[in-house]
Amino acid sequence: MKKLLTAVFLLLLVLVAVFTLSWSRWSYAAQDREAILAPTTAVHPAGTDELGRDRLVRTAAALLIGLTGATLAAAISIVVAAGVGLLAGFSPRWIAAALMFFSDGFLSLPWLFFLMMVRSLLPLTASPLMTAVTTFVVLAFLGWPAFARAIYRGALGMRGSEWMIQGRASGLTTWQLMRLHVVPQLRSLIWPQFLICVPAFIMAEANLGALGLGVGEPIPSWGAMLMELDNTALLVSSHWVYLPIALLVVVLMILESFASEVKVYA
Amino acid sequence: MSAPVLRVRLTAEYGKRSVLRDICLDLCAGDALGMVGSSGAGKTTLVMALLGLLAWRGGKASGEVLIHGRNLLSMTEREVRRIRGRLISLIPQSPMTALNPAVTLRAHFEAAWRAHDSQGRDALASRMRDVLEEVQLPAGDEGFLRRKPGQISVGQAQRVLIALALLHRPSILIADEPTSALDPVTQAEIVKLLQQLTRRHGVALLYISHDLVSVVQLCDRLAVLHAGTIAECVTIAQIEQARHPATLALFGSLPVPVRVLLAHTASRETAKEDRWGRDLVSPQQRC
């Protein structure tokens, strides 16, 4: 029940964001030079930023971009992790050891520098969309090893489980074992990882954006919008500056509540 | 005496650690051999070796496991798979963990059926009716089969596992402590059920248990597994002649002298002299 309510709330937020984007006369990049750093006005209900862009529209766009990007990145990350984890779990020991060594290597990468490197490899003329895609792909790329390890543990548990032995003792073929036993269990193994992954990636993007390593201007992202908060003059002038961070916290809380309520099969 | 359906000459080890040494046992159709032994004596290893599954636990078995005269240990995995569940079946120890909690009971039966039989749903339906009736589960009840293992009782789960083991009418049944997770009443019911099955179908039963009482009720021979070898093998009728310290220690753990237990079981069995109508004169050589 609680889960349903939070899900409905998240859906409402997304719908409001879509509605805002499609009905507002401003686009996320449009500058209203008459109203720079404006407080609430009839045209800009949540005011504007220092370039005169509508804050409500930009926040709505940031919400949608953040959610979509993080969900897609989480999906990529989990698919890779599931592939590697399951392969390792059901392979001979030396293959498992090699795969886990590989994923440990990934975990040990200094990811911030890696990210800076990837970003610096992009030409300066790279389109903002390109930077957005790169940011999330890199997140997915860096995110999988931790989950691969969790899925590998789960796969090992499955491999040694009583029902797997029972299945083998009944003479089931490998294909049957996969279909009957592994696939249904996979959902309960992967789903929690996925739900943990989405808020983590939103948070990571926000942090990277605040460092200037995330999604490039003028595409709005939570990271870029949080940068506004280091301008003290702005903080005093309008409370609407806090809108993006407040929304970020709300969305993260909703997503975290999903992650904590997952039913896991023993 | 007919040729044994299961003939075992077996040694097994995990890496360099030897777990089973020179295990010899023969089982004929209709035989019920009880195997007792303390934890760590190698019972589970023996079960896995008999099913050709020891490699999955990182072990290695050598010697021979002859099932209808064919050596399981020299077969390819593909050949062994065709035998598991069809000629030799397992009733596992813990009913609640031996069924996949994410999968319905029907799906368990369907998979087990298709593993060895390409005849369609009708053949499965009729076989399932028989086998569910046999283990005293609701045979015609679709609702029951749609349940998942978490929604049935432990006793029912054990009956489901017995039904799964019987699905292809195997000639050899290995029961690995099938009653250890059950309450005393359900235990007694399951023992009775196994008793009927061996009698009715002439299945060869290897009954592994901690519980000497159920062994005396169910089996006609008793083998004591101790530190990886069969320390002693006696018929239940001559159980009092057992001399090995491990056997005596087991008897000592009973609340009543083994003689009393035997007399009690005999009084409940009307035709005790020759329960299976077979020659029990010199079974010592068969272990």
What would you say this structure looks like, in words?
The complex is a heterodimer of chains A (266) and B (287). Chain A is an all-alpha fold and 266 residues long. Chain A has a single domain (2-260), classed as Orthogonal Bundle (MetI-like fold). Chain A has ten helices and no strands. In chain A, helix 1 (2-23) crosses helix 2. The model of chain A has no long low-confidence stretch (mean pLDDT 83). Chain B has helices spanning 43-50, 77-83, 95-98, 105-114, 121-134, 142-145, 154-166, 184-201, 212-218, 245-252, 258-268; strands at residues 6-14, 17-27, 32-36, 60-67, 70-71, 88-91, 172-176, 204-208, 221-226, 229-235. In chain B, the strands form two sheets. A six-stranded mixed sheet of chain B has the order 6-7-8-3-9-10, with helices on both faces. In chain B, strands 2-1-4-5 form a four-stranded antiparallel sheet, with helices on one face. The longest helix of chain B has 18 residues, at 184-201. The radius of gyration of chain B is 19 Å and the shape is globular. The chains are: A mainly alpha (266), B alpha/beta (287).
Overall shape of chain A: it is elongated
- What is the structural class of chain B? alpha/beta
Strand order in space, largest sheet of chain B: 6-7-8-3-9-10
Overall number of domains of chain B: 1
Task: Kindly state the percentage of residues in helix of chain B.
Answer: 25-40%
Number of separate domains of chain A: 1
**Termini gap of chain B:** 14 Å
Mean pLDDT of chain A: 83
